[in-house]
Amino acid sequence: MLFNPTPIERLTTLTTQLIEKRVAENDELKILQEEIAMLQASIKSKDDEIAMLSNELLEKDIEIEAIVSKIESLLG
Question: pTM score > 0.70 for this model?
Answer without folding.
Answer: no
